Amino acid sequence: MAELVIPSLPVETRCPPFPLRQYNGFWIPEPILPGVTAARARFEPRPSDVFLASVPKSGTTWLKALALATLNRAKHPPCDPDHPLRHRNPHDCVEFLEAPVAWSKDGGGGVFAALPSPRVIATHLPCSLLPGGITEEEGSGGRIVYICRDPKDTLVSTWLYIKKMVAFAGARANDDDGKLLVPRPTSFTIEEAFELFCDGRCVCGPQWRHVGGYWEESKRRPEKVLFLRYEEMLEDPMGNVRKLAEFMGCAFSAEEEEAGVVRHIVELCSLDVLKDMEVNKSGTQGYVKNESFFRKGVAGDWSNHMTPAMAARLDKIVKDELHGSGFRFAVAVSRCPPAEKNHSTT
């Protein structure tokens, strides 16, 4: 696959930091593409697996933290000073399916096989590119939790995140062997990012097609796919954590509710708490600083970076593309939610 097919796929080089290749209708980062086919061919899901799916910058970090803290609360109570989230970034706690698969000879089997059940595994892959064992009726499956976000906020968050990646690469221009860690363009404006996004040319885009695929799957198999909206989670984080726990098969008991376990999980996974962890102030993922995953955590920040005309154009594209699906993105209640509702990461 990597040698014979990838060079022949359509390529997009204007969306940093890596080239994107169009594969089965979606734009996939070139370094990850081998992992897509490897995962489809060799990854073996377990019935107890929980897959966290999203387009990048749609609340992925927050969902990772919430799912991990909720599913493992018996072993790691949220108030435990040794809780994994107090010492490791959420992306170090929950691995992406396509990353180790892309960079290992055994299809990532060694990484995931070693994890105890229930495993929590993240992915940015569209539903149509997931391993068949996850989506097919006769597959061993597991459950999928999907989170989506207003495309305008997704675009802005992606653009700002890419700028941080590029700055990080510039600060560490060369590794020990003198090779450039991350290709860096001379500039990447919001206007450039906007045009690419509107054309669907973003990581795992088009974003609306990615969302639509999981939306259809959630209607087809509601017992296997939980569909969440970022904006609704901001408005009612505790209610959505309860929904998440019930879906994952670990609903909160009356005793836990009385003890405030739900509230403690939401607080542990909040923007302010995670941002203040030393690992998230000083650590890195090798390609970006951990602090880059924790920005504002609000809905509607797009209005600080996009013009009304840009917003109207993108809204129309999305509306036209999703016409007839029955799906609509949630609308932010306000441009800047009150501080007590700012429980998210991006």
CATH topology: Rossmann fold
Average of pLDDT: 87
- Give the low-confidence spans: 176-181, 333-344
* Count of domains: 1
Structural class: alpha/beta
Which CATH architecture would you pick? 3-Layer(aba) Sandwich
Taking Cα atoms only, what radius of gyration do you get, to the nearest Å? 19 Å
Going by CATH, the homologous superfamily would be: P-loop containing nucleotide triphosphate hydrolases
User: Helical residue percent?
Assistant: 40-55%
What does the overall shape look like? globular
CATH class: Alpha Beta
Report the strand count.
7
Question: How is the secondary structure organized here?
Answer:
Blueprint: E1 11-12, E2 20-23, E3 26-29, H1 33-42, E4 50-54, H2 60-71, H3 90-93, H4 98-102, H5 109-113, E5 120-123, H6 132-135, E6 143-148, H7 151-171, H8 190-198, H9 207-220, E7 225-229, H10 230-235, H11 237-247, H12 254-259, H13 261-268, H14 271-276, H15 278-282, H16 308-321
Parallel strand pairs: 4-5, 4-6, 6-7
Antiparallel strand pairs: 1-2, 2-3
Helix pairs in contact: 11-13
Commentary on this structure:
By secondary structure, the chain is of the alpha/beta class. The protein has helices at 33-42, 60-71, 90-93, 98-102, 109-113, 132-135, 151-171, 190-198, 207-220, 230-235, 237-247, 254-259, 261-268, 271-276, 278-282, 308-321; strands at residues 11-12, 20-23, 26-29, 50-54, 120-123, 143-148, 225-229. A four-stranded parallel sheet has the order 5-4-6-7, sandwiched between helices. Strand 1 and strand 2 form a beta hairpin. Helix content is 40%, strand content 9%.
